[in-house]
Amino acid sequence: MRQPHSTAALRRARPGASGASTAGASPLSQTSIDHLVNPRSVAIFGVTDSRQTWGSTALRQSAALGFSGALYGVSQRSSLQGFDEFRIVQDIADIEDSVDCALIAVGKDRTLAALEACASSGVRSAVVVAAGFGELGAEGRALEAQMLDVARSAGMRILGPNCIGLFRSGGVCTTPFVLPPGAVGMATQSGNVAIALGLRAKGYGFGFSTCVGVGNQLDVGFGELLSWFANDPATSSVAIYLEGIPRGAAAAFADGLSDCHRAQKPVFVLRGGITEAGSSAVGTHTGSLTSDARVWSALLEGGGAVSVSSVEALADSLLATRLPRFGRGVAVMTDGGGDSVMAMDSLALRGLPLAKLSERTRLALIAVLPPLAPRHEGLNPLTLDTPGGLQDNPELLATCAEICADDPAVGALVIAGLFGGYQRHSSEEIAAAQRLASLCNSGMPIAVASAYDGVVDDTLVELRRAGIPVYGCIERLAAAVAPRYERVKVHASDPPREAVRVELRPEVGGGRKLATTEALDRLRRAGLPCPPVRMVRSAKELVLAQEELGFPLCLKLDVQEIVHKSEVGAVKLGLNCAEELEQASAQLWEQFPSSELLVMPMFAPGFELLVGLTWDATFGALVAVGRGGIWTEVEDDFAVVPALSTESELVGALSSLRCFPMISGTRGQPRLDLEALVDLIGSVGKLADEGEPLSLDLNPVILYVHGLAIADFRVLAVDPW
After folding, report:
1. Is 42 helix (H, G, I), strand (E, B) or coil?
2. CATH superfamily entry for domain 532-601
3. Strand ranges (E), 273-419
4. Which of 46, 275, 412, 612 has the least C-beta neighbours within 10 A?
5. Which helix (H) or strand (E) segment is 675 a member of?
6. H or E stretch at 549
7. Helix or strand or coil: residue 364?
8. What's the CATH class of domain 30-246?
């Protein structure tokens, strides 16, 4: 059997290329949207005598919330009742001072004229709330193109159209609603989602530094806002509700996630429209297997973001923003045996490990535990429902928490049960909450599940005031905490991520199948370990091929249109002598007359994978990896990453595969050459940035303990435009 290719080191560099300049994705300086999100002067179009109009509401709300800058109303009428404290003008040109931001809260038919007036007056940014533009079809898109031309010619930024405006705590409020103040930055494509999250925030005890409605993302989009949040001192975590991003905006979105990750600001993403729309299929497995859901998952996980499935889960996650200490387990304390059992189940199902307490910690706990308290193995979980326990002395909980917090094995404390409901000992319970708050402020992450979550209670208020999240049940707690723990495990040692600069291309509509010689040349020039291949058209050429390659050999029909050659009898494996090779070729030529055959070495059996490159309308070049060979469609076990991903991102994608234990070695099986596989995936990704765009399958890639072999390949040159 032939020796497979082996590679020594992982590629770490990420080659650069200039990005496409498209709406919603153009690289801009940080200060370019400061005028929008943090304006010093605001002009509001659409102010009328009615207090109910968007413009009138925004003018009053901004003043009431403490906006300290200059506020102007722009109205067709020179005099308005009830607006004596504001300066009202009929034309924005009448404002002598410079205007940072204009809210254009007028109908669709008047929007373009208002925008042109702003551009002529040197307004730096505009919020367009009217609907009826690109979301409705070609006519609306043409209007958007006019708006964008006006803005770009004047160097003016646009938020919207079809958006809810923006809210800045202590600043401007051009949204029709007010959110509680706090440290969450939000970007959303739905005003209702923002309102629903705001209502939950009031009860949960968190609030918002900023809320921005992105609308149609004609100019300012999610990516730029994420980067802005990463640099905003008032924002400590980020909530996103999105239904999609414009074509070409994926690079900016990935960069924004990376900026937040480097700033240690967690990003939680709720996606709408998550049914599988599919990606562009270009005649390869990779194109048909790469789904919209998979790509979004890869993009979000690669940037360290956490996906959630509902507004409730988003609110729960925003409570649990403090990371468990990396590499350590959870210490659990409850006031009931049932709560201990459910806590163990919930944490285990979510992959949260229990801390193994040291002997010193266990002895210290035993010294303070009531004599009849249950003794679980290792005292984790710790159950305190016995006489002399929490019902008699709520401060025992704080004492045990302080002991566990001193153990180096403990990365977080979880408290579950009825804390907050001990009314007979309310003063002791409040004292316990204050001690837990002090522990939290010293750096120990704490989360509480209490059946009294919905009850107004001074004890739980004390916890929330200190930033300790309180949930109504242990299942919600585990669901909120676990994703953050998982993300820190994956990303804790990541080097700073370089910005993606691959040119993002639109949807691929077809492709030219490369001849075998051309395909091999492209793959070899990219550094891929392609096998020696000989093409034969006659018995004479067959003899020359076997003399050159030696045995064992395999024989394949050279027809790119056939994806699974084995299913139509177009491949003959394990040919060990000239006679077997001659018989196999005769059978193939009889079945497929005048066809060209490929003669290749026969590789030793190993673990079969598919590695592929494809193109997507939104995300550009993508690499897929998963089960290969005959298991490709059967297993549906694939991961997708952007073409130029870091080493740790590639390893993270591989570790998400169900088949990863077969690669990493489990139950006594040898570990396969993960480094060679990562190197190969990196080389395939670099093809996205070299010459004519390609879509390809390497299937199967046979992975061994040392090295790998590419046993078959399929390559298309695609026209992404």
Report:
1. strand
2. ATP-grasp fold, A domain (3.30.1490.20)
3. 306-308, 329-334, 382-383, 410-417
4. 275
5. helix 674-686
6. helix 539-549
7. helix
8. alpha beta
Joined together, the tokens standing for residue 33 give 């949207």
Phi then psi for residue 372, to 5 deg, are -95, 10
Q: What string of DSSP letters covers 165-229?
A: -EEETTS-B-SSS---EEEEEEEES-HHHHHHHHHHHHHHT--EEEEEE-TT-SSS-HHHHHHHH
* Same topology between domain 327-491 and domain 532-601: no
Length of the chain: 721
| pLDDT tens-digit readout, 93-144 | 999 999 999 999 999 999 999 999 999 999 999 999 999 998 888 999 999 9
pLDDT band at 259 (very low <50, low <70, confident <90, very high): very high
DSSP lists the bridge partners of residue 417 as 450
Please give the pLDDT value at position 1.
Answer: 42
**pTM: predicted TM-score of the whole model, two decimal places:** 0.77
The upper half-sphere exposure of residue 207, i.e. CA atoms within 13 Å in the direction of its Cβ, equals: 13
Terminal Cα distance for the chain, rounded: 44
**Domain map (residue ranges) of the chain:** 30-246, 327-491, 532-601
Written as six digits, the tokens of 396 are: 């025992």
Residues 475-507 as b/e (b if ≥16 CB within 10 A, e otherwise) read: bbbbbbbbbbbebbebbeebeebeebbbbbbbe
User: Rounded CA gap, 102 and 259, in Å?
Assistant: 28
Q: Which residues contact 359 (CB under 8 A, 6 or more apart)?
A: none
Q: Which residues pair with 181 in a beta bridge?
A: 208
CB count within 10 Å of CB 246 equals 21
Q: Please list the residues that pair with 410 across neighbouring strands.
A: 329
What fold characterizes domain 327-491? Rossmann fold (3.40.50)
Residue 204 has pLDDT above 70, yes or no: yes
User: Two tokens at 261?
Assistant: 């990750």
- The average pLDDT across 488-497 equals 45
Tokens of 255: 């960069």
